[in-house]
């Protein structure tokens, strides 16, 4: 592990925890977040030179506290909070990150703001790191975060774990944000971008954190299994020169089979305890089918088809139907699959045409296949993009 | 925290309401009254139902001279049709309240500025 990776990891393990306890302490989300961000920036400058301290949590807390006292001294109305902060020693506070996550992913915030805020507040990324990871400008990300923080304060978004009767809906919101991060990271990862922040790693870390805090939530376990199953294939996803390798062409001996069996075991344990599986569990189960197949040809397509049917009852979407049609082509043949595919209103979706082309070729309708391929190419910016989409289809 | 709930009607909602018979309208009003009654401990000002956007007059003062025009400040298919002020712990409580609102299909929740 490089020092930089280690640094990022240590910051992530402690920044959110510190933010969580400071928000509780100060009762001011925005002010607490500023202090943590300052402490993180200072740590990122000093730790590479001075080394990572033995107690990074205490170090960060001390820096944040000193900054906080400075700021608060200048604001008379914070006198009560000031003494509160002075009284606080640097013992690790209880883990308040669950509240923090729910606040950052509150439905009253725009999706983009939820994503940026979660990365910054819960994972301790700097604005610059977030901008690089999301391929956005730093000023745009900074503005998004400032607006979101202002809204939390001004609109009275509470710093609280939702009530039991609201938990499942709010958890869905949190999982959507993490899934988005995962997708963003997974699809943008290339050999050239190996040095930029790995959002997939952040997504896995967040899901694992959430799973630790809410161990009985089956969809959290489902998402964790899904992410881990995909990460287990990392070594086989690119050629040495950095080109994407589609699932069907991957060298399956390169997969992390230990990680695969652990993720599958987690999925099985979860399925055993909870009867009706949710969408993430079903997607993970589909990924598990692929991961357990010795070859592409030996994939259990029948099982995958059943899982897609279950997924469609939960989340009917033409894109899911498109995915399902691939499994269908292996079970009932390309003709049946093509008939199903042609019912979908996905004319502007390049993968729709690429999949059509494939079915047509299998049926020996080469001229039509070429037309469909051309249409797919017209709709995508570049061939690498199409490869990405094809890979997504095989997930 | 204090919030103002702005009730917003859509053209579709207005048309549906127009088409209702007297008994159905009566029932719709009854549900609205019931909602106000259910939440009376949180309502600090019942506010008012407004007349339609065709009755609105807008005055613009930013051009040096006051410009008076017929109609609401934004012409659109969705118009504010009433408002109510509530006092609740936080946005989540306001959201819970609004979810049970039985009439027009859109509600905007705005925190009141502390002066």
UniProtKB/TrEMBL annotation, chain A:
<dbReference type="GO" id="GO:0016987">
    <property type="term" value="F:sigma factor activity"/>
</dbReference>
<protein>
    <submittedName>
        <fullName>RNA polymerase sigma-70 factor (ECF subfamily)</fullName>
    </submittedName>
</protein>
<dbReference type="InterPro" id="IPR013325">
    <property type="entry name" value="RNA_pol_sigma_r2"/>
</dbReference>
<dbReference type="GO" id="GO:0006352">
    <property type="term" value="P:DNA-templated transcription initiation"/>
</dbReference>
<feature type="domain" description="DUF6596">
    <location>
        <begin position="170"/>
        <end position="270"/>
    </location>
</feature>
<dbReference type="InterPro" id="IPR013324">
    <property type="entry name" value="RNA_pol_sigma_r3/r4-like"/>
</dbReference>
<dbReference type="InterPro" id="IPR013249">
    <property type="entry name" value="RNA_pol_sigma70_r4_t2"/>
</dbReference>
<dbReference type="Pfam" id="PF04542">
    <property type="entry name" value="Sigma70_r2"/>
</dbReference>
<dbReference type="InterPro" id="IPR046531">
    <property type="entry name" value="DUF6596"/>
</dbReference>
<dbReference type="InterPro" id="IPR007627">
    <property type="entry name" value="RNA_pol_sigma70_r2"/>
</dbReference>
<feature type="domain" description="RNA polymerase sigma-70 region 2">
    <location>
        <begin position="11"/>
        <end position="76"/>
    </location>
</feature>
<dbReference type="GO" id="GO:0003677">
    <property type="term" value="F:DNA binding"/>
</dbReference>
<dbReference type="Pfam" id="PF08281">
    <property type="entry name" value="Sigma70_r4_2"/>
</dbReference>
<keyword id="KW-0805">Transcription regulation</keyword>
<dbReference type="Pfam" id="PF20239">
    <property type="entry name" value="DUF6596"/>
</dbReference>
<dbReference type="InterPro" id="IPR036388">
    <property type="entry name" value="WH-like_DNA-bd_sf"/>
</dbReference>
<comment type="similarity">
    <text>Belongs to the sigma-70 factor family. ECF subfamily.</text>
</comment>
<keyword id="KW-0804">Transcription</keyword>
<feature type="domain" description="RNA polymerase sigma factor 70 region 4 type 2">
    <location>
        <begin position="101"/>
        <end position="152"/>
    </location>
</feature>
<keyword id="KW-0731">Sigma factor</keyword>
From TrEMBL, chain B:
<dbReference type="Pfam" id="PF03795">
    <property type="entry name" value="YCII"/>
</dbReference>
<dbReference type="InterPro" id="IPR005545">
    <property type="entry name" value="YCII"/>
</dbReference>
<protein>
    <recommendedName>
        <fullName>YCII-related domain-containing protein</fullName>
    </recommendedName>
</protein>
<dbReference type="InterPro" id="IPR011008">
    <property type="entry name" value="Dimeric_a/b-barrel"/>
</dbReference>
<feature type="domain" description="YCII-related">
    <location>
        <begin position="38"/>
        <end position="115"/>
    </location>
</feature>
<comment type="similarity">
    <text>Belongs to the YciI family.</text>
</comment>
